[in-house]
Write a structure and sequence with these properties.
Number of domains: 3
Distance between the termini: 50 Å
Largest sheet: 4 strands, mixed
Strand order of the largest sheet: 1-4-5-8
Bound molecules: flavin-adenine dinucleotide
Order of helices and strands: HHHHHHEEEEEEEEHHHHHH
Number of strands: 8
Helix content: 40-55%
Number of helices: 12
Radius of gyration: 22 Å
CATH class of the largest domain: Mainly Alpha
CATH superfamily of the largest domain: Butyryl-CoA Dehydrogenase, subunit A, domain 3
CATH topology of the largest domain: Butyryl-CoA Dehydrogenase, subunit A, domain 3
């Protein structure tokens, strides 16, 4: 496998860096850093990114994109995150909802939704999880009942990010109680400003707040169904890998690793006995962080028509999120209460975010279950028992 970039991709990376250093973007990034809020509203920043073509990089021109490759899109994500762009609106809105509309939406949906998302004028969040249902989405209870002019949706979604500022919500709901728990699911693209959508913030340990979204008789048109009625389970199987490339986690691991290594004058650290121990940690975390990035790149490199391989994405998500959580704990422990002022805020935020990384987008246990399912399925069948003569 070739891990390098072509000359053209390298030039593209330089162009993205220049856009991120342009005066309007740089000053908006500086404003967000200085505002002191744990979760500032980043929509203005995203509008600037959208105007510069940095959001829908690999979407077709006719849908507001730049018509480039998945590798170009991944380069743009790397550079945006390295420049300090908060990534949740991107991961949920562009990478998950937008990509699913691109893969499975009607031409009307693509024309209506994608240019707005790519321009950073409208935003989308993901409404899968319910108070009693997370890992096993086939048990969802939110109901969508057919009406003459579309559907009426009732239920509660929870632990979703950014729903207080998004315009669309990708909502999984049950359209049939008769069919199997898999066949009765359908995906809808809700208008988050519609009557009956009630969004409540929930406090969390991390900087980003969760939301509880109550759907109380929300009316949706038949044109808001993604795919066909009853196709929800099959579409989830396409949508979930989209948020599991591991890029977001690998880039967090990279940032926090650099923070952990930033102050070379402090070579011992809390609980670490010697310089040799510290150097061993630096080497181990450095290699594992790089491995996480390579697993993420492997997902991008082998994408097939925008579709991602479930085994590769589950592996990348599991490994990169575990590594990011581990490096956050290491970096925090290394400095302890002696953290230099310029690093303290990053360490504090990373340490509080770490536990959620191995849960969001599919828990580590579920990723391991998926991986083992593929690996065992790939094993040759055991030879049939022969009678002993
Ligand atoms: C930071 C963060 C952001 C999130 N953002 C969103 C969002 O935007 N939209 C959204 O819809 N949801 C979001 N979620 C919710 C997330 O998808 C769920 O938390 C996750 O899927 C787990 O579901 P659960 O919390 O109900 O836990 P459960 O499914 O109840 O699992 C609890 C524990 O049991 C384990 N477990 C469950 N089933 C099995 C099994 N079969 N075998 C072995 N172990 C098992 C799990 O691994 C976990 O450790 C977010 C969560 C976090 C932490």
């Amino acid at each position: 496998m070739d891990f390098g970039h072509s000359a053209e991709e390298t030039r593209f990376r330089d162009r993205i860096r220049a856009e991120l250093q342009s005066a309007p973007v740089a000053s908006e990034l500086a404003r967000l850093r200085a505002c002191g809020e744990r979760e500032p509203d980043v929509r203005d920043l995203y509008r600037l990114l959208g105007e510069r073509g940095l959001l829908g990089v690999d979407w077709p021109h006719r849908h507001g994109g730049q018509g480039r490759t998945a590798v170009h899109a991944a380069v743009a994500v790397e550079e945006m995150m390295r420049a300090g762009v908060p990534d949740t609106l991107f991961v949920n809105g562009i990478q998950t909802v937008g990509k699913l509309v691109l893969l499975a939406g009607t031409e009307e949906q693509k024309a209506r939704v994608l240019p707005e998302l790519a321009a950073g004028r409208r935003f989308a969040s993901v409404l899968y999880t319910e108070p009693e249902v997370g890992s096993d989405l086939s048990a969802l209870t939110t109901r969508a009942v057919a009406r003459e002019d579309g559907y009426r949706i009732d239920g509660v979604k929870i632990y979703n990010l950014k729903s207080d500022i998004t315009d669309y919500g990708l909502c999984a709901a049950r359209t049939s109680l008769e069919d199997s728990r898999y066949a009765g699911l359908t995906l809808f693209l809700l208008d988050m400003h519609a009557p009956g959508v009630h969004v409540e913030r929930l406090d969390t340990m991390g900087d980003e707040q969760f939301h509880r979204v109550e759907l109380d008789g929300v009316r949706v048109a038949a044109t808001d169904i993604i795919g066909e009625v009853g196709d929800g389970w099959a579409l989830l199987a396409e949508a979930l890998p989209l948020e599991r490339t591991g890029f977001d986690f690998a880039l967090r691991a990279e940032r926090w690793y650099e923070t952990g290594c930033a102050d070379l004058t402090l070579t011992g650290g809390v609980g670490s006995g010697s310089v040799a121990d510290w150097l061993a940690d630096v080497g181990r975390h450095g290699a594992a962080t790089r491995a996480a990035a390579l697993l993420a790149w492997r997902c991008v490199g082998s994408a097939d028509g925008g579709r991602l391989d479930e085994l590769q994405t589950s592996t990348a998500k599991w490994y990169a999120s575990e590594q990011a959580a581990s490096v956050a704990r290491w970096a925090m422990t290394r400095y302890g209460l002696d953290a230099p002022e310029d690093l303290a805020a990053t360490l504090d935020s990373a340490y509080r975010e770490a536990p959620g990384l191995t849960l969001s987008g599919g828990t580590s246990e579920m990723m391991l279950q998926t991986i083992s399912g593929f690996l065992f399925a790939a094993e040759p069948a055991a030879p049939a028992t022969t009678e002993v003569e």
